[in-house]
Design goal:
homotetramer, mainly alpha
Amino acid sequence: MKNENVKKRLKTVEGHLRGIERMVEEEAYCIDIIRQIQAVQAALNKVNAIILEEHLSSCVITAVRGDDPDERERVLNEISSVFDAANKI
Amino acid sequence: MKNENVKKRLKTVEGHLRGIERMVEEEAYCIDIIRQIQAVQAALNKVNAIILEEHLSSCVITAVRGDDPDERERVLNEISSVFDAANKI
Amino acid sequence: MKNENVKKRLKTVEGHLRGIERMVEEEAYCIDIIRQIQAVQAALNKVNAIILEEHLSSCVITAVRGDDPDERERVLNEISSVFDAANKI
Amino acid sequence: MKNENVKKRLKTVEGHLRGIERMVEEEAYCIDIIRQIQAVQAALNKVNAIILEEHLSSCVITAVRGDDPDERERVLNEISSVFDAANKI
């Protein structure tokens, strides 16, 4: 997928992360660092949500409407597995 | 959906939860109670995964292969929204 | 720990869970069931937060102010382990 | 806090994140991108766990053993709030 919104958000997260590295370097207070890392994680959740939404409205529709039952199953299993993984992080 | 596996798992969770209520009643150690509640939450994640998998392989396929684009969109938006919510609990 | 607020909340969760079992029995829509289970999980997060807060302001203070360094370490390691587990559900 | 282990891990995460940006640039498969982002989130959970552990065994012990009840309460409330936030991402 190629998505300018996603790219911009990942760039922002990268900048945020570099800021956190500086905080560690400058011996900032632990709890402040944890909170910033949690903010990064929330931002990454948002990125995942955007990618999933795009995926559902393109690849998934194509596969499910297509004639290949294996491909259909594969694509739907991926959704399940990504959902499972989301629950474990 | 009607799923004996899901029903049995929910019954087990209910029993587990009653056990936790007894622990609170008997003034068990806080951390032990938290760990049991976390076990219940993991069990509920598993139930959600099972339901989602069944949903993907039935309703979602029907809607996406159907002729109604609004229904298709509705069903796919639901997947996104459930994924978003999973990230927030 | 003995906490009427926690007990009441767990009772409410138990009732909520029985409602979800009925939904499954009556073949409710998958996504509606998943949403209700997610609401139960959020309610259990709240219960865990309450128990942890009470634990921090009682047992943890006692252990950390006490004279036994092993006990102190044990109690603080428990906090870490519960935090880790929370990240994995 | 100044912790070489934490700094190294954050550097690694930053590299991982840049790899993901390249994947988006090169239009990699959505699900593969989501999985890499989930791996980053898991790595950040680990960093948070390490920071919290260090915090518990230093600042928290100092505050709880200290003579200032307000400071004690503040430090313990922070633990609760970080735990709450962890449950919401």
